[in-house]
Amino acid sequence: MNSRERVGANLDAGPLAAYTFAVTANVGHREMRYSFARARKPESSLTIVRIDVPLTLCGTEIAIWEHFDGFYRVKTYIPTMRAPREIGRPQVFDTLPLTDISYLDLMRSLSPSVLPEPLVTAARSPYASTTTNQSVDATAVYRTDGLTVTEQYTDVSTTPVSRIVERSGKFERAWQVMEIGTVDDHRLPLRVQVTRADSPKTTVFERITPIVALDTNPGTESSARLLKCALDQLARSS
Question: Which pTM value belongs to this model?
């Protein structure tokens, strides 16, 4: 089994340098809608997610800058904050607003607290499963500081179709791709299911728009610029 070579972040949309899409989910009894956007350059990427619905949470956002030499920045903002907050400690990443959303997890290369060198193995995690129609042909396991992340890949994609997070040997959460998108949408997932150890219910995140290419690449420096371009273009395409 050969290790899959990944360049930069997962979930790249083929040749698109900047793109956006919208996702919905029912979290508990509450309907949620999110806008996602990504811009990338040869050496870096910027990913941002924003809550649009419900109104009480509208404007909550998180932005992640990833440089492919290993450097990253995380900035989060909640409307009740006076100003956005930058997070410098990777250990607190999992406690931030929005970071537990599977699509954001999928769009990242890895959780910042996980070392970027995988051990590729044929072993399957006891928590791993996929419901896509593709057979899993590679499993990558990342371990650091009591955290184990297991990713599975199919024979048609270098984007993982599942990720299982275990902390200190105990299952914490997992997501899996339930339905893969079309070639026109660069096979980006349509539906992703999340399972958590602290909840008896699963949550399904569904992409409700096509992958919308941004007319111009706003670059990877400004999250505000990327978000504005994405929201404007989503509004025009709806």
Answer: 0.80
